[in-house]
Amino acid sequence: MNSKKYVWHPYTQMREWKEFDIITKGDGMWLIDAKGNRLLDGVASMWCNVWGHSKKELVNAMIRQAKKLQHSSLFNLTNDQAESLAEKLVKISPGMNKVFYSDNGSTAMEVAVKMALQYWQNIGVKNKTKIVSLQNGYHGDTVGSMSLGYVPLFFSRFKKLLFPVIRTPTPEKYRIPKGFTFKEYQDFCINKIENIFSKNNDIAAFFMESGAQVAGGVVIYPQNFQKKISQLCKKYNVLFVLDEVATGFGRLGSFIEYQAQNSRPDIVTYGKMLTGGYLPLAVTLTNKRVYESFLGNYSEMRHFFHGHTFTGNPLACATALTNLGMYKKNKLISKIQTSAKQFESRISEINELNLVGDVRHKGMLMGIELVSDKKKKIAVKSDKSIYKKIFVEAKKHKLYLRTLDNIVMLVPPLAISKNELDFLLDGTIDTIKKVTKVI
Ligand SMILES: Cc1ncc(COP(=O)(O)O)c(C=O)c1O
Q1: Nearest CA to 367 among 320, 406, 335?
Q2: Ligand 1 pocket member 316 (CB < 6 A)
Q3: Which of 62, 70, 109, 306 is spaced 20 to 30 Å from 359 by Cα?
Q4: Ligand 1: centre distance to CA 43 (Å)
Q5: What's the pLDDT tens digit per position in 166-206?
Q6: Are 244 and 269 in contact, with CB atoms under 8 Å apart?
Q7: CATH class for the domain made up of 331-437
Q8: 29-84: per-residue pLDDT in tens?
Q9: CB of residue 245 inside a 6 A radius of ligand 1
Q10: Where along the chain do its domains lie?
């Protein structure tokens, strides 16, 4: 099998790669390639794996459901798995009332933005059409989600296609602008939002990731930041939309992150870990206020014009139900809190490495920022192809790592054991040390 012949890989300079390792098996926290080499999955197969690979309960749930019904549509029909999962999601998501299904995080965000804009039209407020979001946020790769979360490095080529969004600063602790303490900068960021809300009565919605910006470089929000924005949205009658695609269901040490943040969205999205990372599924939940605005006579055309072939796919929904049911049984959230301490205990050691400028961590998420000048905080340049160097070196330490430009991401499956997490942290430290010599 020639790995480079037909497949075009995401976010990859194909010319840089002679071939790709062909993964043929998963075994717990490990990925196994066609030659039998084992790699510890340090990024939970793009931040979605919860229990490790080939987990018996999830595989059995998939087999059971596949034998009954593999797919049936939600257009004019429903299915038992989509119904049960929606009920479960509404029950665990305070303030939420209805679930709209899609199959990846980007489309869940497309759904959210369309719902938010149509909501105001539905209730006869025609001027509320503007969107505000946080600088450095990331909400996916479709045109709408690129507009919401504009990462210049990723999306500048498509700028002309994107709809305008007002962006406000995120309180990043590592790079506080001159003249501010961190506390003052947080106040500045919040005041900026209040200023925009108070001077413009045409803001439809505020969008942000819940708990932390992940793809934007692992920026953990300071305490009460999300809560304050939630309160401002209520005060100025702006819809509050939270993206929990990457942070929902345990990544930051909480089950429902917006609840842990004492915030209350009108619309929230989940994805990634919803099925334990086994099948593509995402959801957009809304409160009653938003949902009911879409009700009316058919001829009013106020219903929601959106749907995908695999909306509410029963196989994915059955897997999600089994996955969510396993959290309590396995006391996963309290286990995550123990693992989080294990992460924490290594931060100063990592910080001391020559190439490391900053380590940002919460729960089962760690971002290690690599810099060429510690004092001046100058990021290692992308032309050094750091992501590839880290990947190649990490493999020698039996790790699968995928960095985000100059940020080494540690995002393991949530149920990783103590020994395996030590293996990941030890190997990452050795990898960074080795890469320092060749950069
Ligand atoms: C916060 C956030 N929102 C949305 C997405 C997009 O999800 P997907 O890759 O499933 O389209 C991601 C993906 O990383 C994400 O981190």
Answers
A1: 406
A2: no
A3: 109
A4: 14
A5: 999 999 999 999 999 999 999 999 999 999 999 999 999 99
A6: yes
A7: alpha beta
A8: 999 999 999 999 999 999 999 999 999 999 999 999 999 999 999 999 999 999 99
A9: yes
A10: 60-329, 331-437
